[in-house]
UniProtKB/TrEMBL annotation:
Annotated SUPFAM superfamilies: POZ domain (SSF54695)
Signal peptide: none
Species of provenance: Nephila pilipes (Giant wood spider)
Record Pfam families: BTB
The name this protein goes by in its record: TD and POZ domain-containing protein 3
Gene: Tdpoz3
Domain of life assignment: Eukaryota
Domain BTB positions: 177-244
Amino acid sequence: MFVSNRSSNIKVIPVSWRFKECQSRYDLWTDCYISEFIVNSEWTLSCSFTKNSKQNSLLTICRRSTASKDLVSGSVSAYNESNYCEGQSSFSHLFKPNDKSALLDLRISVRENFLISGFIKIVEKFEECTNEEVESFCVKKEILQSQDSSFSSRRFEPLKELSDDFSLLLDPKTPFADVLLICESREFPAHKSILSARSPVFRAIFTNKMKASRDCEVNITDIDAPTVQAMLRYVYTGQTENLSDSLAASLLLAAHNYQLEGLKRVTCNYLKTNATPQNVLKLLVLGDLYTQDLKGFAMDFICDKYPEFSVLEKTQEWKALLKKRPNLVIEVLIFLIKSKDKKKDDNKIVILKGKP
């Protein structure tokens, strides 16, 4: 559905666009996937995206008829798999007669499973559009954005209220705590029922006849005190604050040890978003230890950033990995060889298809 004025010169079209590799085509020359969004019978959008790169995505706007002067603009936001907004972008392009397409830099990086949400405005026959019609569009656009923002806000209000209320239980002065988590000489008052509901590991501790259950104390020795504090905040509120690479790595360990799958997804997404050629081998090790999702991401990232192994083997990070985890090094080498062979096969296929 779209909103238009009475002359149909101005259209406002909502966009909800999910990016999936299996539903897109692969562009060999740019090493990106291309996803398509059909606006209507006249207009089509296509956008580049990758699995792991942070390069800006390019938006192509195409039209069927090229006779008139049309103005296309829009405002969109990109949301990752965890529904966090990764960036916003606005764009505008005036199509002159005989112009069929336009290529625009979105200035945000769209990756697989991201969702693009927003609005596209199309002013057809731009020269014929009056000032009154343009003003009418602006009013409608403001109303639509206000309604959408209000709906999103109302939809998440109960969850925010629940999160805020449960955060009060983290205050040591709040009563009703029935267990102490002890880590590095620090004590964290907590609640067996909440810990048990959120973590199968804590549930096992409190349901078995163990000394920790009888004494109402649990000694935490596998993670440090700041990580325990951050883990409890997530357990009680579903939120993480002030993440850094080191804290995210520690929380990934905590998520693995206490079977907190939601926290594992959050920390993985953070680490993937902040991946660099300098830290990707550390992410590879973390993925090898705790989650195949992060390991697969790191493998793809290495192939993307180090197409030639001679560049990778000269880095200090690679030399350190070779000493500490030789088996993982062998996996990387096999993956690089297979990836290179696949690209060669894809090139052959493209060349064969191009022959008459």
